[in-house]
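Researcher: Here's a chain I'd like modeled. Treat it as a single chain, no partners, no ligands.
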Amino acid sequence: MATLARLMSRKPLAGRVAVVAGATRGAGRGIARMLGEAGATVYCTGRSVSGRPATPGRPETLEETAELVAAAGGRAVVVRTDHTVEAEVERLFARVRSEEGRLDILVNDIWGGDPLTEWGSPFWKLSHRQGLKLLERAVHTHLATSRHGAPLMVERNTGLIVEVTDGDTLGYRGNLFYDLAKNAVIRLAYAMAADLEAHRVTALAITPGFLRSEAVLDHFGVTEANWRDAIAKDPWFAESETPCYVGRAIAALAADPDVKSRSGGLFSSWALAQEYGFIDVDGRRPDWGSFFLSRVDEIVARDDPSDDLDRFVVRSRLFQTDLDPMLRDESARLRAWLAEQV
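Model: Modeled as a single isolated chain. Structure tokens:
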């Protein structure tokens, strides 16, 4: 496997054209920045532009993302696009075709589901209206965007489509509509890969770990400069990552001449960091997967009484193991532990 040092010894994505759908903030912004760092021309799309904020309480704009892309060494193009409106999506790719004549990388990171997710309630108590709106924003948008972006790749028999999700397993994510959305885009990548195989276009899904997005930093009352101060409030934050970490993972995938072998798969920022040898922009190499598993093992092995958080963590891991036949022994062990806590 190529190392990051070799992949990034030059601008490996120079001359490539990318669309990052949902580039205003969070993972999308980090992905756009790191594709720019690798030399790509990045079309940054979303709804929030200067003077026209679209997400209540969030100040980030696409223009700010574009400035970060340029500062990283890439070329950025801002295209305000509401991906729930298919005509706007169609116009976006018509513009890419007209201006660039090609599309090499498409990243679907459209979300908008945070204010619609009702944590802690069973599915029969959830708002049906809010749930359908969440699926429209987080799944239907991905379908429409890929539908209009893929033809630019198919006609050239090359390209990479990336679906950004949350979690590298098929386990339940704690809320029915959230779970549907995050698992749906994993399945979308798998299904698209099957249809695209004959055209040598790759589709895959990827997840970041505990992401230090703008909203998460605000929640903890810290900035990227002093984020470690929040570890005292939440020890899990110690293994968090910047949005650029998953961005470097996608840049490494896009630069890998053998990326086609990964088509249809589900990957994580931390596992790809180990494979490709890259680090986060803060100089660390967080491994959320190993960190989470070690904490679960500590809880189950401990003789002290468990609390609500302990049981939540173990139950979360149980959900991850339930659908994996290779993890039946672990699933049985965790189920037995939870039964003892009643």
